Amino acid sequence: MRVALRTQQIIAYESGVTNTVDPLAGSYYVEALTNEMEEKAMEYIQKIDDMGGVIPAIEKGFFQREIADSAYRYQREIEEKKRIIVGLNEYTIEEECPIELLRVDPKVEEEQVARLQKLKRERDNRKVKEVLEKLHYAAQKDENLMPTIIEAVKAYATLGEIMDVLRKVYGEYKELILI
Questions:
Q1: Backbone angles phi, psi at 86, to 5 degrees
Q2: 157: number of Cβ within 10 Å
Q3: What are phi and psi of 121, to 5 degrees?
Q4: What CA–CA distance (Å, rounded) separates 149 from 141?
Q5: Cα–Cα distance between 160 and 153 in angstroms, integer?
Q6: Is this prediction's pTM over 0.85?
Q7: Helical spans, DSSP H, in the chain
Q8: CA 81 to CA 51: how far, in whole Å?
Q9: Which residues on adjacent β-strands are paired with residue 171?
Q10: Residue 57 and residue 51 in contact, taking contact as beta carbons nearer than 8 Å
């Protein structure tokens, strides 16, 4: 973080780069990078189109595989020092940085459960049931759900109860895992 901060400070305060609207305008290098990025993006889009579009690509696990492969290549490049990340695999500062773990007091969970139970006891459960049924119907009819969700929240339906209704209608996404 310190390296990133110092780099930004040097660029902002010492180089004068912030004194102009577009300091790299007309730069051959930046233009070449932009053209290369555009060309690769268009190749990628064509590859997806050749698969039949985004939906078939998702169904074939294309995006998941591409992301996993890219993350693997990136990490290997860092570990083999083919890609230098200042402060991570080069130019590091050897110092102890104690990491304090956030420990949540178990009483917090007990208090939250008690508040939820109290809410469910004190609210108008008939109204909650009614509005959740209305939400179920609206979801089945593919209507705008926002007004009904707002009504459910105002009746003190919980997020879990609202999501359970929507899961019953729409199901739950299960990521396709291809190896």
A1: -60, 130
A2: 23
A3: -75, -40
A4: 15
A5: 11
A6: no
A7: 2-13, 28-50, 54-59, 62-79, 106-122, 125-140, 146-154, 159-170
A8: 35
A9: none
A10: yes
Which value, in Å, is the radius of gyration of the alpha carbons in the chain?
Answer: 26
Q: Which residues pair with 90 in a beta bridge?
A: 86
Distance of CA 115 to the CA centre of its chain: 30
- Taking the alpha carbons at both ends of the chain, their separation in whole angstroms is 36
pLDDT tens-digit profile of 55-106? 999 989 999 999 999 999 999 999 999 998 888 888 888 888 788 899 999 9
Hunting for tokens 């290549």 — which residue is that? 73
- CA dihedral for 137, 139, 142, 146, sign (positive or negative): positive
Handedness of CA 156, 158, 164, 170 (dihedral sign): positive
Task: Please give the Cα distance from 87 to 52 (Å, whole number).
Answer: 43
